[in-house]
Structures are given as structure tokens and as C-alpha cells.
Amino acid sequence: MLNRTPWLDYLCHHIGLREVPGPEHNPLIVEWGKQSGIDWWNNDEDAWCAVAVNGALVNSGYPSTRSALARSFTRYGTRLKRPVRGAIVVFPRGTNPLYGHVGIVEEVRGDGTMVIVNGNASDQVKRSVFRQSSVLPDGIRWPPGAVAPVESLPAAADVPLGERVLKVGARGPDVAALQRKLNVLNYGLEVDGIYGGMTQDAVRRFELRRNLNGDGIADPAMLAALMVAVDEREARDARRLSAERAATPIAGAGAVVTAGAAVTTGVDAAKDVTAMSGTATAGLLLIGLAVVVVAGILLWRYAMARAEGPGLDEAV
Q1: Number of domains, the chain
Q2: Distance from the CA of 232 to the CA of which of 23, 100, 160, 243 falls in 20 to 30 A?
Q3: Is this prediction's pTM over 0.70?
């Protein structure tokens, strides 16, 4: 049984829709642009392949990319590992990295090609054949909220947060990443990579606080709000930490000054001791010199007296 793909059915229903030649414009193509949230869209002359796919999605109850660029779909919904019926596929166009082409897969063939339904192909909505290998990296997508065929999904280990809608029963590193981000906001979840009741309740409480639908499903709207909230919290925490560091004296700064003063005082004291030692040494030298001089005089006088004969006290 084929998967239900109302967005594909819608666009198939409009195969044959063409641009209006001349200054007039096909009103449905203009309306698709307006419905998709592209406020400036007012013609059928600009490339409108993305407008056609967005129009098919919006008229089937799914969100648009709000862009007229085909490559806006490389970040849309869930990434698939291979094309399947109903997948949105994006191709390069020329060498400009901004340009591209987008359509919806109707049939995947065994020869490596696929049939897509696309707008702005020869100025109309029509079926075209493309090689599967010509799809851009990350260019096979599935609408958010729609259940993708299991066989087309990447392995859970390959899916980063934001690539798929998460709800009860989901497992993988993207669930663990969701839990970690919720914990930044103090939800206190066990980071086990399993989307259970506690994670669902945390997601529901987060959604209700931000006026979202509160269904406990981590869809693109919830994840976008979560990313903003986490960024704001981390920026606020960083500012607070910076302010705290600026207000706290640097540990050991006073000790350094005191130690410096102590070192200076010690040097001065050493100079004083050296000076005192020098003064004492000079004094001792002078005393020693005086003793030698006095002793020398006494010895000289004694020698002279012996040479002159006995003194008065020695006469007989």
C-alpha cells in the first residue's frame, strides 16, 4: 500500500497549470506565494518551483519554508536517506550555490532515475525525469509532522537534533541532545536518549510556557523555540560569570604586594647590617693600629734608656 502523500496529490492535480504570457500572471501561482508567507510574491515570471511545492504543502496542512528559494528545502522537515514517493527533492541549478530546483517524487525507478512533479518546468507544472544521483546533499526531505516511510529514514545514529520530529518512543542521539538542552533550562531529565513520559512532560511544559500547542511533541516550532531559549540562557550565564569575575579581587594580589614590600624591607635591612658591619670593622682596625703605635713607642723608649745607662733609682 502506497503511503498517503496529500501534498503530492495536490500538485499532481495541477499538472498542466501554466504561466500567463505577457504582463498578466496566473492568479493561482501568485496565491501560492502569498499562502507560503512570501509577502513580496506577485508574479509568475520569477522562478516558482519552490512556490509550487510550498503551495502544495500549505494546501495539504503542512508548513512552508516561507521562501522562494528551492534550496530552502534542504533544511525542511526530516532528512531521508533515499528518495521515495512523496519525498521533496532538491537539485542544483547551474554553478551558483544559491540556485536550485525542487519537486516532489512520484515514482522511483530501478534504473537510477525518478519521476518528479515540479513547477516552473517549461513554464508549467509537469512531470520530469531526473537522475537520483543528481540530488543535492541533504536534498531529500519529508514534511514535518508527516510519518515518513521507515525504510527511507537514516539510522538513528546519523540523525542530528532538528532533522526529525521527536515524540514518545523515539530513540537516538538526537533525543539525548534534546534532553541535554532541556536540562540547560533546569528540567532535570536523565539523558538516556529515550523519549519517554518524563521527556514528553518536559517538552509539554516548555511548550505551554511559550504559548505553543503543548502536545509534548518536539516538532520544528518547539525545537526552534528551545534553541532560542537555550542560547539566551547560556548568554545570560556567561554575562553573569563575567560580572562575578570582574567583581572578585584576584586571589593572591594583596600577598604579592605584601611580599614585595617584605622583600624590599629585607633588602634594606641587609644593607643596614652590611653598613653596620663595615663600621665595626673599621673601628677595630683603628684600635688595633693605636695599640701597635703605643707599643712601638714604649719599646723605643725602653731601648733608648738602656743605651744611656742606669737611671737615678738604679745608682749605688
Answers
A1: 2
A2: 160
A3: no
